[in-house]
Design goal:
The protein is of the alpha/beta class. The protein is about 40% helix and about 20% strand. The chain starts with a helix and ends with a strand.
Length: about 280
Amino acid sequence: MIVRDILKYCEKQLSDHQKDSATIEAHVVVGHVLKKSRSDLLRDQDVELSEYQQSEIFRVIHERISGNPLSYITGHRDFYGLSFTVNRNVLIPRQETELLIETVMRWICIEHLRLNIVDVGTGSGCLAVALAVNVEKADITAIDISKEALSVAAQNCRYHSVNNRVQLRQGSLLSGFVGIADVIVANLPYIKKNEINHLQQEIMYEPIQALDGGLDGLHFQRELLHQSRSKLSSFGILAMEISPEQGSALEDLAKEIFPLREVRLLRDLNGHERVLCIK
């Protein structure tokens, strides 16, 4: 079988199983196995594949149509223009989470200080690393309760050469942080416990610990807001990703805990309330 034919085969398999962007995913899968870029595949359309290469592509396609997320298959995910290692110990970074970075970056444009930033529930480290890469005058503490997740975050810190400015800490919420933070960012579990088993098949491959937000989905957000009251500097900012349906409840709670601060809900590109911002 040549490259052209196996690309067509993969695209049909993905399309038949209702995978979005079947053509793109077919190129990603084949390129991943053959270690070739998209342009390489287009150039090598008539190259004959070995039996081993074919069997590996068939195996990976079977994984994908069975529901395994593409990012776990390839082992990486792009986020805020950077490439991150991911595996099943961490949540896959989403595009909507980039709004957290954008929110902090807009605030930093006004401030001209060396900042103390805390990333709560760092997972892959995508928020901590993206901030470290884009904010030179910042010392960052990245906290996660999972030792396995912190191992992935450490890989990403080293890859992007920010391991000297990002300190990884194991702990629950702000328990791993001592001091006062100028910036607190967080993407915490916010799915209601009774909804976990009804999630899309692909999401079920991700760590339950990074999804389960307790009975009402607000367990960790509620606790972080209370902890932040004594940890956030007087001029600082807190930006937290939320589920759109939780916006009103969290906005009311934030105003109760931070009565003298501005509390806003920011919308993502789809118009959904996605970030709770306190400053």
